[in-house]
Write a structure and sequence with these properties.
Keywords: Membrane, Transmembrane, Transmembrane helix. It is found in: Membrane. By secondary structure, the chain is mostly helical. 62% of the residues lie in helices and 1% in strands. α12 crosses α17 and α12 runs antiparallel to α18. It is globular, with a radius of gyration of 25 Å. The N terminus and C terminus are likely disordered.
């Protein structure tokens, strides 16, 4: 079959449709002209959620009157829940609703949460009485939010979490679906899209951490939450405006059923012996690797691999002659089994990014409190809101991301022959290595800040800028690389769910942060005093010790990642859908996550 025939069959089998359910047309639907509307939602939704999340600890501490360690855990649990719920959004999208419908429904859920937060922040009777939590005498007397006041707060907060969580993986997958992975020209545009999506993310974060946080600080949290609601409304308008241009994938039914069938069939036939010749397995197809791309795996073709051979037993045909017993729960195809192998193989890569996101949690909680105890004055009449420090890396990144795409990628492409310059796993590894130094910087500065405070000296807030800058650089590599990796390993019908695994890593990272804070306090506390992070006063706590602990964990985690990234093997049919610039045959670097 020639390339033109292959592409024709792909269009017929792929199930791509427009908003009316009709087959999509390549000259009318998809491409960057459609993806730009998704990027608009990405920027405005990030602007709305970042303005809430990044300054939430200030609101929880000062207005809801929760102690510092408890306030930090409320924030990390909220952010963790946002990212954990991305799995729900990915599942609903791939299985039943489709990306566009999922985004529209949960976009309005998120909007309702912002509105409810704004209403509560506006009316004093819905909050605890005003009280200065920073006063040592008053902090023990300030009444925490309880009863209906706490109920309203947490309902509003978790409406935002539900909406944002279900939106996030679909924003990425709907935008990426506008480019076909099997087309070499669009494959290069897909890599560009991921960088553009991160640029939109950075712009949203930057505006949230400067303009919106300034509004929250000077006009009140009620106005700040209201501006978040307005930004979310604009984002939804952007999404709806591109309706007629989107190329949509049909939902394929429950994505978990085929996975469960593989495990049931393999366990049922556990006593069978796997044949030495993979062609004897059910659904095995021989594909000749030529100087052109192979058939896209989106039409259901995955080459057999040697890992997890136990699962291959699900593809063995029994010789009892009774065809009625070979139901889908007893006999699976090679492609179905290989899809499960991919899901199992990406778990260690996913796990290695959890510590990375635990570091991110500190920059959104304790580092903000660090800034609160430092000299925030920039001029006589202007003070920097502590939460706005998180804007520092995004100011840098709005310049670095375009440079990465226009300078670094073309240079690396000439060396490696890859459309994306370096592999997605290499990109993740670079970011994980750099992240360690963010916590090293944070520990050194916190030690200096505490010693200065004990001498009645106040450091300028810019001392903690390096930890944000270093982490921002690491995030440019790790966050984009991880999203690109998971999307590239997904088959049609699982794009949103696998993309959601990226956000699930954020979730586990923030939950791990809450667990570490509690464990560290318990282990380091004694009868004569509290733990490293037990008080509301950072000058008496040992936050720098906690930062050193995270730096050590991050360093060990980097070497753990090196092991698993070299262990990981791309399925050949997936790696060939995005061939090198000069395609010939499967190279050693296509078989391993990190080139050797």
């Amino acid at each position: 079959m020639n390339g033109e025939g292959t592409m024709k069959n792909f269009k017929e089998e792929s199930g791509e449709i427009d908003w009316r359910g009709r087959p999509s047309k390549s000259n009318k639907h998809g491409g960057m002209s459609a993806a730009v509307f998704v990027l608009g939602l990405q920027a405005f939704e990030m602007m709305a959620i970042a303005a809430v999340g990044n300054n939430l600890i200030t609101y929880v501490f000062n207005d809801m009157h929760y102690p510092l360690s408890k306030a930090a855990n409320i924030v990390t649990n909220f952010v963790g829940t946002v990212f954990l719920l991305s799995l729900l959004g990915g599942f609903l999208s791939d299985s039943y609703l489709g990306s566009f419908a999922t985004m529209l429904i949960f976009g309005f859920v998120e909007l309702s949460g912002f509105i409810l937060l704004s209403v509560q922040a506006h009316f004093p009777q819905l909050k605890p009485p005003k009280c200065n939590m920073l006063s040592s005498s008053a902090s023990a007397q300030c009444a925490e939010a309880k009863g209906y006041k706490a109920l309203i707060f947490f309902v509003a907060l978790y409406l935002v979490a539900l909406g944002s969580g279900c939106l996030k993986p679909n924003i990425i997958s709907l935008g990426a679906d506008q480019f076909r992975k099997e087309d070499s020209k669009q494959s290069r545009k897909l890599s560009t899209y991921f960088n553009c999506a991160y640029f939109a993310f950075c712009m949203g974060e930057l505006i949230a951490l400067t303009v919106l946080v300034w509004v929250q600080t000077h006009s009140g949290m009620d106005v700040g939450f209201g501006v978040s609601a307005a930004a979310m409304t604009v984002g939804l308008i952007c999404l709806v405006s591109g309706t007629s241009l989107y190329r949509n994938n049909r939902p394929r039914g429950s994505i978990f059923t085929p996975i469960a069938q593989v495990f049931v069939a393999a366990i049922t036939k556990r006593k069978q012996v796997c044949p030495s010749n993979a062609d004897m397995l059910h659904g095995s197809k021989t594909i000749v690797l030529q100087r052109v791309s192979v058939t896209s795996p989106t039409v259901g073709t995955l080459l057999h691999t040697e890992k997890f051979r136990f699962l291959d037993k699900a593809c063995i045909k029994t010789e009892d002659g009774n065809q009625m017993t070979e139901t889908p729960w007893r006999l699976c195809t090679v492609s179905q089994v290989e899809q499960v192998k991919i899901l199992i193989s990406v778990v260690p890569i996913f796990a290695c990014t959890i510590i990375f996101n635990t570091i991110l949690a500190q920059l959104q909680t304790f580092s903000v409190q660090q800034g609160s105890s430092m000299n925030k004055r920039l001029t006589k009449n202007f003070q920097i809101p502590p939460a706005s420090l998180q804007a520092i890396p995004y100011i840098m990144l709005i310049f670095l991301v375009p440079l990465y795409e226009t300078v670094f990628v073309p240079m690396a492409r000439r060396i490696t022959g890859r459309d994306s310059g370096i592999t997605s796993l290499q990109r993740v590894g670079i970011g994980l290595f750099i992240a360690t130094f963010s916590m090293v910087s944070a520990a050194i500065v916190e030690n200096k800040r505490r010693k200065s405070a004990l001498l009645n000296e106040t450091l300028t807030i810019f001392w903690i800028a390096p930890q944000f800058l270093i982490f921002g650089l690491s995030e440019m590599f790790t966050a984009v690389g991880l999203i690109e990796f998971f999307y590239s390993q997904s088959l049609e019908g699982m794009q949103s769910f696998l993309t959601a695994m990226t956000y699930c890593s954020y979730s586990f990272g923030f939950y791990l942060s809450s667990l570490l804070v509690s464990l560290v306090n318990k282990i380091t506390s004694s009868s004569s005093g509290g733990g490293w992070l037990s008080g509301n006063d950072l000058n008496t706590d040992k936050l720098d010790h906690f930062y050193w602990l995270l730096a050590a964990l991050s360093f060990v985690n980097f070497f753990n990642y090196l092991f698993w990234s070299r262990w990981y093997s791309y399925n050949p049919s997936l790696s060939l859908t995005s061939p090198p610039t000069q395609p010939s045959e499967v190279r050693e670097s296509d078989k391993n996550g990190v080139e050797t």
